[in-house]
Structures are given as structure tokens and as C-alpha cells.
Specification:
About 60% of the residues lie in helices and about 0% in strands. With about 240 residues, it is mainly alpha-helical.
């Protein structure tokens, strides 16, 4: 006579079935979107009159400043930062909101292209899973290239190629260290940090970028002060 399964075994089987079902539905819903991310970035960039660029068409000052400030573990993480998630969770619990980001560059890319702007727990969970899948599908160079082409940098500028022309009237490859590090700080709040209309706030953010680069030993403090003091030569000034 077969011994009946215990309640624990039954619940375990049920949870396994539910998990498999969820993953199957998740796969069907998002797989096509994930595999077409480069095309989506290109379409978004062109729709906003952007200027597509490759990594070798952008000064390293911009990408290094961006990573040091927005996602310093970018080349080591799997698209998510447990430290960032933990820090954001604590703030969210304390404030009773979902205001804190804690997002990596990969999560920001996924949020901009595939998810709604509403901050909810399901969206955060979905974004985390998609970021993990994106890290499996694409190299870090591909992810970074997509990000710098689609990120909004204020003044109707999507992507660093367009932003370099809008703010400084030059290609992204020819940006000075001062110009590049200023742009690297804009993703946090593009409109509020627009150097044309909020110059002092933009400069404060630029210094935060430079401090992050000093902390990561990419530059010395002396170099940071020299870059900060250099002229920006904004087109609108």
C-alpha cells in the first residue's frame, strides 16, 4: 500500500509547479524583447534624433566617470548589486515608499526600455530577473554601449552622442575631461542637473563624479580639482 505524501511534500510540489509556470510565462513574455534589445536601443535613439556611437567613439572619461558613479561594480556584477538593493530596501522601508533606486546600469537599461515607470515591488522583481538574463545574453561592452546610447541626459538629448553636441557642440570622443565628467553625472536627474539652467547643481554633481573616480583610484585628488576648475565652454553660455 502506497504511503500518502506528507503536506510538506505536497506544498513543495505545488511551489515547484508554480515556479516553473511563472518562469515559463516570464520567458514567453520577455524573451523576444530581450533578444532585440540592440534594435530597441537603436530605434529609441533615432526616434529622439540621437547620434548612435560605439564605445571607441566616446572618451573614456565619460564611461569611467559614469561607472564610478552609477555602478562601480559594473564589470564584476551580474546585472544587479546586492549592496545597492539592500541599501535601497532599507531606505524604502524607512520612508514607506519606493523612492530609492539602487539600480545598476543594466537595471536602468531594462527599466528604460522594457518596464513601466511606476515604482512597485513586482516591477522591481521583474527588473532584477531581466537584468540577470541580460547579463547572460550580452557582454559588458554591449550592455554599456546600449546604455550610453539610450540614457536621457536632459535638454531633449538621448544618448551621449547627442548630449555632447547639444551641450558642447562637439563629438563625444572629443569631450574634455571636464565636459565628460559633467555629462557622466546627469543620469541621476537630467532635468534638475541641466548645466544650461541649473549650472551650480550640475557642477556639484560633477564633483561627486570626480570624488567617485578618486575613491576608485582612477585619478588623484589633485587631478580632480584640476578637472573641476577647467572651463566647460557650454554652447549656450
Amino acid at each position: 500500500m502506497t504511503k500518502p505524501r506528507s503536506p510538506l511534500v505536497k506544498w513543495s510540489i505545488l511551489m515547484l509547479v508554480l515556479l516553473i509556470t511563472f518562469l515559463a510565462v516570464f520567458y514567453v513574455r520577455y524573451w523576444s524583447a530581450l533578444t532585440s534589445l540592440p534594435a530597441r536601443v537603436h530605434d529609441r535613439t533615432m526616434a529622439h534624433h540621437g547620434i548612435p556611437v560605439s564605445l571607441n567613439q566616446v572618451t573614456p572619461w565619460f564611461t569611467k566617470g559614469l561607472i564610478a558613479t552609477e555602478d562601480r561594480s559594473f564589470y564584476r556584477n551580474w546585472g544587479i548589486s546586492f549592496e545597492g538593493i539592500g541599501r535601497a530596501l532599507v531606505v524604502d522601508i524607512e520612508t514607506g515608499s519606493f523612492a530609492q533606486g539602487g539600480s545598476t546600469l543594466t537595471q536602468q537599461l531594462i527599466r528604460d526600455l522594457l518596464l513601466s515607470p511606476h515604482k512597485t515591488i513586482p516591477r522591481k522583481v521583474t527588473g532584477t530577473l531581466l537584468a540577470l538574463m541580460t547579463t547572460v545574453l550580452y557582454s559588458k561592452q554591449q550592455i554599456l554601449t546600449m546604455y550610453i546610447n539610450e540614457v536621457y541626459l536632459g535638454h531633449n538629448s538621448y544618448g551621449v552622442g547627442r548630449a555632447a553636441q547639444t551641450y558642447f557642440g562637439r563629438p563625444a570622443k572629443n569631450l574634455s575631461p571636464a565636459q565628460a565628467t559633467l555629462l557622466a553625472g546627469l543620469p541621476q536627474a537630467p532635468s534638475a542637473l541641466n548645466p544650461d539652467s541649473h549650472y551650480h547643481q550640475a557642477k556639484t554633481r560633477q564633483w561627486e563624479v570626480l570624488e567617485s573616480m578618486v575613491s576608485d583610484r582612477l585619478i588623484t585628488l589633485h587631478t580632480a580639482h584640476r578637472i573641476y576648475s577647467a572651463p566647460l565652454n557650454l554652447v549656450g553660455s
